[in-house]
Every structure is written in structure tokens, then in C-alpha cells.
Task: structure prediction
Amino acid sequence: MAIRFHNTFTRRIEEFVPQQPGEVRMYNCGPTVYSSPHIGNFRSFLLADLLRRFLEWRGYRVRQVMNITDVGHLLEDAEEGEDKLEAAARKQKITIWDVARKYIEEFDAARAFLSFRDAQWFPRATDHIPEMIAMIAELERRGLAYKVASGNVYFDVARFPAYGRLSGNTSEELQAGARIEVNPEKRDPRDFALWKIDPQHQMQWDSPWGRGFPGWHIECSAMSRKYLGDTLDLHTGGEDNVFPHHECEIAQSEGTTGKQFVRHWLHARHLLVDATKMSKRLGNVHTIAGLKEKGYGGDALRIALQKAHYREPLNFTLAGLDEAEKKVQRYRDASERLAAEAAAGGTAHATDEVAGLADGLRGRFGAALDDDLNVSVALAVLDEAVGEVNRRRPLGGDAAAFLALLREFFGVFGLLEKKTETPVLDDAGIDAMIAEREEARKRRDFKRADEIRDQLKARGIELLGDVVARCERAAPGSAELALALALALEFLGDDLVDDERPAEAVAPLRRCLELRERTAAPPPASPSRYGIASALNALGVALAESGAAAEAEPLLRRSLELRREERTAWRVAVALDSLGAALTRLARFDEAERALTEALELRRENLDRDHPDRAATLGHLGALHRKTGRPADAETEFREALRIVRARLPEHHPRIARALRDLADLLERRGRSDEAKVLVAEADAIAAAARAK
Ligand SMILES: [Zn+2]
Result:
């Protein structure tokens, strides 16, 4: 079904068709940075974010610009008077540039709090004065602008007959309107300033018309054109922007280019607070930061500000926000339960019944938003889906199907995206995860074990550091806690090695080994001995990778002995692997080759071909063959290792970056630096994405 939006310009609901298939150019009038962002400002910004998310969900690439007004916007949106930023600077006794910096920071913080997707561009007006001057000059050349004796330059509205079409303000109404001040230097009371001369103004730039500053409206015409071209698919703002701001934008842009400026205009209605207009005078202005301080979450605020249709009035109350908090909790409970059930179910498929149900819900959700962003219906479908989850308590593949569905819905509304809002696990939760991972490893469910490891990692290596510290403090003598501590230290060490910080891993892993040895039952007994094997292996790897392969070798040999005693082929293979890599570093190539070949053979029978452990062995073999003059073999091995980690590991896993670099390094040596560069760029992108997480 086609997407349809109301178009302010035609006052009709129209099919939305972007100029280029698959791509949407969207411009959003952003904040004037002179005061703390409040919920009234954010209703229209959230409309922009919802459009972006919805269109991306529908498969469009969205090129989005949200401008930052830091000059030229005068008090009361008027043509004469004090600049909003200057007024703020005067009151706060700081410079106008400090005002801009302060409120841009607050705006960024508010967007982050509300989980906005970042626009590709947030251009600042003061960074685009040359573009504005060029546009004003073009308007002057086309006879649409004129300069008066004071040096001010005005747009000549009488020369642009379409003026008033967007707002529906006819020229008679405008001329009779009380808003129009009498200014004898204008040819027509409707004319608006493009460039102003005012020695009192703090910000001044040279121009063909003298030193001055731009009018408020010209920035949006100049910046939208610079980043998105002559014609925009979508332009949004608050309803107070329709006149005069957007009316003036149309006149300036179409006057300059002669082309249609905007295909589809969307405007958000005003927000009411406790059923009355929000204003500083009434003292009912809620800032985003103020609500955050009161303890409200960004997700609840998003619901409270998005729950009504954008063209309907929305009445904001704190009671409504409390309701939204409950809703968020309900969403979070459902999605956490689904995540746990889905993970426990492995790769099971959904039943036909649930798959069909999910498709139906997805279809209705999309159809509602296609219909001029009917959020009430879409949110009702979301609630219905959560209701089904609570009623059915789905398991395995069904849970995965519901989880995928809910994540799509949440994604469109920007909910449950922030890590900081997921409740931090208490001690028991972390211990349970660690224990579960160990269980998963025991039953050779690597997928689950890796998932838990990634979850732990997602909560940050720092968190693991916290666990370690807490265990140490809590019970220095307890064998049970020592075991948990040893595990935590091992994860921490493994992660540091994965992140190519092996030297930092050595100390925690030494401590881990110590704890393992202290708590192990004496031989010939128990599996706890193999905990020692695991610790020995981890420490050996960290040492070898940080340049102490000689020190690593005896540890790795001991680990191998224990593993052979244990008689689990894949664990023996892991030990051989680590030993082989260390021997390569020691330039004992024949021994290394034997160890690694044995590891591969053990895996041939006991492990699926695409297990990431097999990739590790192949990587080590590649490193060996690179050094022993067999570059063709090395290339085959590195490529196979890369294929496996790409297929099996999460997309930004450091082991993928590493496999890319190994292969790139080899290709570089083989004189194929063009191929190598591509791989290095990909590895850098992965590292950057992982850091951003
Ligand atoms: Zn604008």
C-alpha cells in the first residue's frame, strides 16, 4: 500500500512519492538555541524522528538535515527587535557564542536522552553565511530583492505571487493583519528582511550590502539547498513555522531556483500542558532535562509526546507520563522474557500459527502508519502484540518471531534502544549469567555461550571489573565466590585479548589461574582441574600475544596435558591451537605445524566446519605459513577463517577485524596492496563501530 501524508500546502492527504525511488530528502526546522529545550519544541522534532524511522523501516534511505538557528531569529519571530540569542546573552551575562554553545549541548543531550537517530547534517546558520549571501544576491539579480537606504535588504513579496499559498493568508488579510508593523522603508508591509544592518547586533559579517547579519528565514533556504538540492521531498516544522517562516522559505527558494521547493509539507500541532498553552509566563514549561531530573525515562517521554496524531492537539500531563512509564515497563518485561526464551530455543523456527499472526500484526502496524502516520492505531497494534506475548508465553522459535516483531515496532517508535535504560543486573543476575554460560559451554552450546559472553561484554568490560572487585571484597575466603571470580577474570582476560590488548589481560588471568589452583579439588578427582586448564590456556594466549611466548609455552603444554586427560576432542584442539600459535612466535615452525594440523584433524570429526574455533586454528596456520614461505596456503587459510567468522560472529566482533587485518597484511606482502586497502578499511570500520557501541 502506498504511503500517504497530509500536505499542508494542498491541505489534502496525498500519496507520498519521493523524487528518487528509494531515497527521501528531508529537511526539519530545528531549534533556535537560546534556551533549554522543552517538550513543546520536541513535539515537532519527534515528528521528524518518527518520519525518519518509519521511512527507514519501509526501506527508504533518508537524507536528513536539521538546522540549528544561532543568528537572526528575533524575539516574537518579529521583523524588528532583539535577536533571541542576544537577549539570552544579555540576561545571562555571557557572550552570544557561549549562549549558542550551551544550548546546542543541551539540545544534543536531549536528543540523546530521547534516542533520536542522528540527522546526517545539523548545519548551523553562522557556518553558512556565504551560502546565504549568494542566495540573497541571486534574488536581487532576479529582481526579487531590494536594498534600501539603511542598507537592509528585503524580499519583494509583490513580485512573488504565490506568497501566502502555504499558510492560506491572502494578501488582503496580511495587509490588514495587526502583526504587520508599519515600516516606511519597505515597499510592501509583507516584505521580509533578507539582510539586516544593525550596529547594535553582536554578530556581524561583511556582505555586498554592508556589514550586517542575515534575516531568520534565509538560512533554511540556503542550507536545505546546499545539502539536499533544489527540491525537498519532505519539510517539517511546528505549526507556528507555517507563517511567516515557511512561507518565506518558499518565496526565497522558489524565487532563486524557479523550481518547486518542497513536495510535501508536514507540520506538528502545538502541545498543550495540563490543557493550556505552555508558556514561560504561566510557568508550565517542562524542559527535557527537568523531566529527566525528576527521574522520568526517555522512552516514557517519547510515548507521551508521540501518542497523539501529529495534526491533533496533544495534552501533556505528568499523570500521562507516569502511565507511559508503566507501559515502557510492560514492553521491557515482554521483550526481556522473549529474548531469554528465544535464546534458549536456539535456531528453532516459529510455528506457522505464530508466523502468520506476526505477519498480520506487522501488516496492520504498517498500514496504520502508511495512513498519514496514524500512531494511535499503530500503538494499539503494538499493545496487542505485547498482549499476545503475555497471553501465549511463546517459547523458542515463536518467542524469536515475536521478539523480532516487537523490535521492529519499538524501532519505529524509538523505544527500548538505550543501553543505559536497561536495568543494570544485580549481583545475582550477573552470577547467573556467568553460571549459565559455563553450563552452555559444558553442553557444547557455543552459540548460547557466545551470546551470554556478548551480553556480558555489551555491559562493558568495566562491569566485569566491578564483579571482580565485588567478589574480592565480599568473600576473600569463599571457594564458591573464588570460582565465580575466576570465571569473571577469565572473561575479562578473553575480552581484552579479543580487543588486542593482551598485555592488559595478563594480570587478571594470572589471578584467575591462582584462584583456580587454590579452589581445585585434588587429583584424580574433579572437573575443576579443567578449570585450571582453561585458565592456563587463557593466560598462555595473553602472554604469547603480548610478546612473552617463551613464558607461555610451559603453561600451554600443561593446559594441553590436562585437556588430553579430559579426553574431549574439541578442548584438546583448543589447547593445541594456542600452543601452535605460541610455537610459531618462537619460530619453532615444525612443532607448530604438527600442533595446528592435529587441531584441525580433531575438529574435522568433532566440530562443525564453521565453528569460530576452527577459524582460530586456520588463522594460526595462516600465520605459520606466511612465515614459512607458503603464502598461497596462508591466503587460502586466512580467507577460510574470514569466511567463518563473518558467517558466525556478530557483525562488529573484533575477531572479524582481526581476520581482515591478517589477510590484508598477507596481501600487502604479496604486492596486492589495492585489495589489502579495502580489507583494512573494513577492519577500521568494524573497530570504529565497536568503539561507538
Ligand atoms: Zn526553518
Observations:
- Residues 420-427 have pLDDT under 50 and may be disordered.
